[in-house]
Design a protein that fits this description.
alpha/beta; 7-stranded mixed sheet; 14 helices; globular; binds pyridoxal-5'-phosphate
Length: 407
C-alpha cells in the first residue's frame, strides 16, 4: 500500500510554519515528534468537556475521564501486545519508567549483585543504575563496543554470571540510530536468571513492538517521541515481577488502606501510580496510538526505512561526511560529522537552521559513546512519518552549503 504522505502532513499544523523565512523541515524527531491534529484536539476536548480527577469521583465527569484513561491503557496494552492491561504503568516518560525499575526492582538486589548495561545508552539508562549500584553496593558492568561503535557481544557469556540480576539496554540507540540485537541478549540473560529491561524510547515510534514475543521483563517508552504529548510515558512489566516489587512513590491512589502505623497497597497497576496522573497526557497518548494505527506501524516502518536508505545513499556520496556505524542496521536516525578540521556539529546545525532545517547536534545525552569516538558530539538527522525525500534533498543541499562555508 502506498502512503499519501501529503495527506498525513496536513494533519500536523506546525509543518505549515516557516523558520528563518524558509518552510520548516523537521528532522529532530528523535528528540520529540510533532503532534497531529487528532492528538491536539483530544487534549483540548478533555479540558473543555470532561476535565476531572480520575478514579475518585462518582460524578459523571470523573467517570468519563476515568473511562477514557483506562481505554488508553488498553490501547497501550494492544500497541505493545502486553498480556494484561495492569502490566501497563503510566509514568512521566522513559526516564521515570527506568528510575521506577532501578528504585523498586533495585530494592530486591543485595551487595555484590551485578547489573549489566551497554556503552551505548542514553544517560537515563546509565545514571539510575549507577545510583542503584552505589545504594546497594552492586556492581555495574558494561557490554563493550566494536571499533565501529556497535555492541560487541563476544564477551557476553563472560559478562553474564549467576550474579547478574538485571540487564538494561536500548532497542535503538538515540545517539547513532543503530538497532541492537536485543533478542539474543534477552535469551542469554534469561539463561543465567537475569531480568531484562528494554529502553524502547527510540523504537516504539518506528518498529512494531511485541513484548511477549520479545520476552523482555520490562519495556520503557515516552509518548512525546511517538506523536503524543510530553510528560507521559509507559513502563510495561511482567505481572509476576511487578507484584514482587515494592511501591515506587507513596501517596494517593496507590494504597488499599492507610493506618497511622502502616499501610497496605493497591493492586496493579495502581500500586505504581501514586498521585493524580497526567490524565490529559494519557488520553493524548491513546490518540497518538490511534494515529499510528490509522497508518499502520508496519507501513510507518517500511516508509521510514526508505528514508533512511535514501539518506545513507546520499550522505555516502559526500566525501567530507563521516557516518557513525554506517554499515549497522539503522532505524529512525543517522548520526554523522564533517571531516573538516575545527568544525563542530553545532556549526552544521546552525547553518541548517538558517535554511529552516531542524537537526540535533551535540552528545544526545549519550556522553560515553561520544567519548568512545573521542568527539564532543554528532549531527543527528531523525525521521518521522511526515518527512519526505524532497526534504532530504534540501537537507543534502544545505549540507553542501555548510561544507563550502566551513571548509
Ligand atoms: C534511548 C532513549 N532513552 C531514554 C530517553 C529519555 O526519554 P525521556 O526524556 O522522554 O524520559 C531518550 C530521550 O531522548 C532516549 O532517546
Amino acid at each position: 500500500m502506498s502512503l499519501d504522505i501529503q495527506q498525513i502532513r496536513k494533519k500536523f499544523p506546525i509543518l505549515d510554519r516557516e523558520v528563518n523565512g524558509q518552510p520548516l523541515i523537521y528532522f529532530d524527531n528523535g528528540a520529540t515528534t510533532q503532534k497531529p491534529k487528532e492528538v491536539l484536539d483530544v487534549l483540548n476536548h478533555y479540558y473543555e468537556y470532561y476535565n476531572a480527577n480520575v478514579h475518585r469521583g462518582i460524578h459523571t465527569l470523573s467517570q468519563e475521564a476515568t473511562d477514557k484513561m483506562e481505554e488508553s491503557r488498553r490501547k497501550v496494552q494492544a500497541f505493545v501486545n502486553a498480556k494484561h492491561e495492569h502490566e501497563i504503568i503510566f509514568t512521566r516518560g522513559t526516564t521515570e519508567a527506568i528510575n521506577l525499575v532501578a528504585s523498586s526492582f533495585g530494592e530486591l538486589l543485595v551487595e555484590g549483585d551485578e547489573i549489566l548495561i551497554t556503552q551505548i545508552e542514553h544517560h537515563s539508562n546509565i545514571v539510575p543504575w549507577q545510583l542503584l549500584a552505589q545504594r546497594k553496593k552492586a556492581v555495574l558492568r558494561y557490554i563493550p563496543l566494536s571499533a565501529e561503535g556497535i555492541l560487541d557481544l563476544s564477551q557476553l557469556d563472560q559478562l553474564l554470571t549467576n550474579k547478574t540480576k538485571l540487564v538494561a539496554l536500548n532497542q535503538v540507540s538515540n545517539a547513532l540510530g543503530v538497532v541492537n540485537p536485543i533478542k539474543e541478549i534477552i535469551t542469554k540473560a534469561h539463561q543465567v536468571g537475569a531480568k531484562v529491561l528494554i529502553d524502547g524510547a527510540q523504537s516504539t515510534p518506528h518498529i512494531p513492538i511485541d513484548v511477549q514475543e520479545m520476552d523482555c521483563d520490562f519495556f520503557a517508552f515516552s509518548g512525546h517521541k511517538m506523536y503524543g504529548p510530553t510528560g507521559i510515558g509507559v513502563l510495561y512489566g511482567k505481572e509476576e515481577l511487578l507484584n514482587l516489587m515494592p511501591p515506587y512513590h507513596g501517596g494517593g491512589e496507590m494504597i488499599k488502606e492507610v493506618n497511622l502505623d502502616f499501610s497496605t497497597y493497591a493492586c496493579l497497576p495502581f500500586k505504581f501510580e501514586a498521585g493524580t496522573p497526567d490524565v490529559a497526557g494519557i488520553i493524548g497518548l491513546g490518540a497518538a496510538i490511534d494515529f499510528i494505527n490509522s497508518i499502520g506501524i508496519n507501513e510507518i516502518h517500511d516508509y521510514e526505512m526508505s528514508l533512511i536508505d535514501y539518506t545513507m545513499q546520499r550522505l555516502k556520496t559526500l566525501p567530507e561526511v563521516e557516518i557513525y556505524a554506517a554499515n549497522a542496521p539503522h532505524s529512525g536516525a543517522i548520526s554523522f560529522n564533517l571531516k573538516l578540521d575545527g568544525v563542530h556539529a553545532s556549526d552544521v546545525g546552525m547553518i541548517l537552521d538558517k535554511k529552516g532545517i531542524a537537526v540535533r547536534t551535540g552528545h544526545h545525552c549519550a556522553q560515553p559513546i561520544m567519548k568512545f569516538f573521542c568527539i564532543p558530539g554528532t549531527v543527528r538527522i531523525s525521521f518521522a512519518i511526515y518527512n519526505t525525500k524532497e526534504e532530504i534533498d534540501q537537507f543534502i543541499e544545505g549540507l553542501k552549503t555548510a561544507i563550502r562555508m566551513l571548509a
